[in-house]
Amino acid sequence: MQKSDENRKVDDSPARSRGRPRAFDREAALAQATRLFWIKGFEATSIADLTEAMGIGSPSLYAAFGSKEALYAEALRHYREDNEALVWAGFFSAGTAREAVKSLLMDSAAVLTGCVVDIPRGCMVTLSSVGSEGYVELGELVRAARTVTLDRLKLRLNQAISGGEIPVSTDVHALARFIQTVQNGMSILARDGASRSELEAVAELAMLGWDTRTADVERGQG
Q: pTM for this one?
């Protein structure tokens, strides 16, 4: 981006104009960067792309965020804080493990397809390939974020065993991985254009698998 273009977008040059300089809205700029990383990925997003989307010059970007890598790390945090409740609120408020899992998958079908709020399709964390692009530390951040889903599912499933909802013989890790895999697959399909109704159908089929596995409780084998 040429310097003249940058100056038209925001007054971040050393020259002083009359009156009070326009304030730099860091959170708004971060939101724009997050959206761009979400859509294009880390490697495909250039500094020029970022400065254009954020409405600032590259000196302001580096001054505010340090580097492209640091900006991406902040974007991951911003993504989680802004969007996590859309998918997880129903899970945490559900009365049973089955209701929690179904809420997670159904809410994912709606959110991942952009039917709830104006956000890009798919999950930024699930779709990220930054680790395989040679950015080890960022890759670790993404893997840690993905692990949160597994840990939450395992905790809820263990609570369900303690409460007699599902059999004590349940392979908690495998069942949690199954649910996580379904949700991750939904994210990829959403990015490819799958509809909310298609993903809801996937969620319903996944719950049939849940019912088959947990039927042992009703037969007194849990």
A: 0.83
The position carrying tokens 């104006």 is 118
Write out pLDDT tens, residues 10-45: 344 434 444 444 467 899 999 999 999 999 999 999
Which of 18, 47, 57, 108 minimizes the C-alpha distance to 100? 108
The residue count for the chain: 222
Alpha carbon distance 201, 203 (integer Å): 5
Query: Rounded CA gap, 77 and 47, in Å?
Result: 20
Give the tokens for residue 36.
Answer: 């761009």
Number of CB atoms found within 10 A of residue 80's CB: 15
Q: Dihedrals φ, ψ of 218, to 5°?
A: -65, -25
Using the structure block, give the residue that is written with the tokens 């809420």.
103
pLDDT digits 0-9 by tens, 100-125: 999 999 999 999 999 999 999 999 99
134 exposed, middle or buried (CB, 10 Å; 0-12, 13-18, 19+)? exposed
C-alpha 88/C-alpha 100 separation (Å) is: 9
In 3D space, the residue among 57, 1, 2, 7 whose CA is nearest the CA of residue 29 turns out to be 57
CA 199 to chain CA mean position, Å: 17
pLDDT, one tens digit per residue, over 165-185 is 999 999 999 999 999 999 999
What residues contact 96, with CB distance under 8 A and at least 6 apart?
160, 165
